[in-house]
Amino acid sequence: MKHLLGLGAAAALIVAGSAFAGDYHDYGNNCYECSDEIEIQLVGEVACSCEISFDQPVAFLNLSLIDTFVSGVQNLSVTCNTDDDLNIIFESLNGGLLHEDGVELIPYDIRLGGLPVAFSTPVPFDGSEDVSVGVNGTGPLAGIYTDTVTVTVFVD
């Protein structure tokens, strides 16, 4: 009787042990092994990067304001590591060519691919277009006239 109780207790421990040991898998060699698994998520990010450049920005320097119409043309190129649509904005610091004494302002226009661009208004951009600056009129005051235009390209 003692032996039966001992065998029964041993069988109960084996059954109890297998119930808590985890999952069993047959790995093709008829050997069942105890195993567990966990999933690992991998996440990476590549930051958006854009490079904007003019071929030769000197085309906009030293515009002669003696003639009634002067212009400069340059190709603007943008390379971004995204497939999203590009947009471009031109913003003027002075709103025109401002005389060095701040007393006279000569208006000008900017064209992108031949089309006029309004300052501070985003427009679609294909990544490479000619930008032209046209000045209509002359400055009555002798001196230097300047403006700074900030060109910003962004993706949608």
What can you tell me about this protein's structure?
- It contains one helix and 13 strands; from the N terminus they run H-E-E-E-E-E-E-E-E-E-E-E-E-E.
- The chain is mostly beta strands and 156 residues long.
- A hairpin with a 5-residue loop joins strand 6 and strand 7.
- It is rod-shaped, with a radius of gyration of 37 Å.
* β-sheet strand percentage: 35-45%
**Quantity of strands, as a count:** 13
How helix-rich are the residues, as a percent range?
A: 10-25%
> Average pLDDT across residues?
80
Characterize the main sheet: 5 strands, antiparallel
Order of helices and strands: HEEEEEEEEEEEEE
* Quaternary form: single chain
What is the radius of gyration computed over CA atoms, rounded to a whole number of angstroms?
37 Å
Count of individual helical segments: 1
Shape: rod-shaped
